[in-house]
Amino acid sequence: MSKKSGGSKLKVVLAIVICIVLAIVVPTGIYCAVKHESPVSVVSGIFVSNEDRIIGKWQNEARTSAYEFKDNGTYESYFSTFSYTGDYTVKGDELTLSNPSSDSTVTYKIKVSKKELTMIAIKEGGLETDKSEESSSTYQKVERIQTKSISQILEDVTSASSENE
């Protein structure tokens, strides 16, 4: 009789383990399918913080702006050939940039993967941004920042506007 109850306990434990694994795997699989993300990056994202992931060089596709986040809590922001420096902090999914020369701060809601950084401004100077004007900026991780000059940006704008006419 004791052998039979031992087999029953094993079956119950095995059933519980299978239920727990399914409860983790199925939602993760659905999330990955909907968001088009690799399960490996999703699972590793649990163990790597945004603070660690954000370190590096990030540039937008148009090459008009870029950021470099350093591991000492400082950053450089680039717009064309102009650059600004300051300090940054990351808490969860919020990135706060402080610029001591202009005495301003901007807080962004961020999403960071190995290759992409998405930022949405949520506070400027301590005040919440207008939700109707909210827009996201996406940056790709790069080895070297290569922003366009002002003349190249203006040339792109004028050629785009002449194509629309």
Which helices and strands, and how do they pair?
Layout: H1 2-35, H2 39-47, H3 50-53, E1 56-60, E2 65-69, E3 74-79, E4 82-91, E5 94-99, E6 104-112, E7 116-124, E8 127-128, E9 136-142, H4 150-164
Antiparallel strand pairs: 1-2, 1-9, 2-3, 3-4, 4-5, 5-6, 6-7, 7-8, 7-9
Structure described in brief:
It contains four helices and nine strands, in the order αααβββββββββα. The chain is of the alpha+beta class and 165 residues long.
What sequence of helices (H) and strands (E) makes up the elements? HHHEEEEEEEEEH
Radius of gyration: 23 Å
Overall residue-averaged pLDDT value: 85
Strand content: 35-45%
Q: Helical percent range?
A: 25-40%
Q: Specify the biggest β-sheet.
A: 8 strands, antiparallel, barrel
Task: Going across the biggest sheet, name each strand in turn.
Answer: 1-2-3-4-5-6-7-9
For the record, the count of structural domains works out to: 2
Give the CATH class of the largest domain: Mainly Beta
Task: Give an overview of the whole structure.
The chain is of the alpha+beta class and 165 residues long. Helix content is 38%, strand content 36%. The mean pLDDT is 85. The longest helix is centred in the first third of the chain and has 34 residues, at 2-35. The chain has two domains: 2-47; 50-148, Lipocalin (Beta Barrel). Strand 2 (65-69) and strand 3 (74-79) form a beta hairpin. It contains four helices and nine strands, in the order αααβββββββββα. An eight-stranded antiparallel beta barrel has the order 1-2-3-4-5-6-7-9.
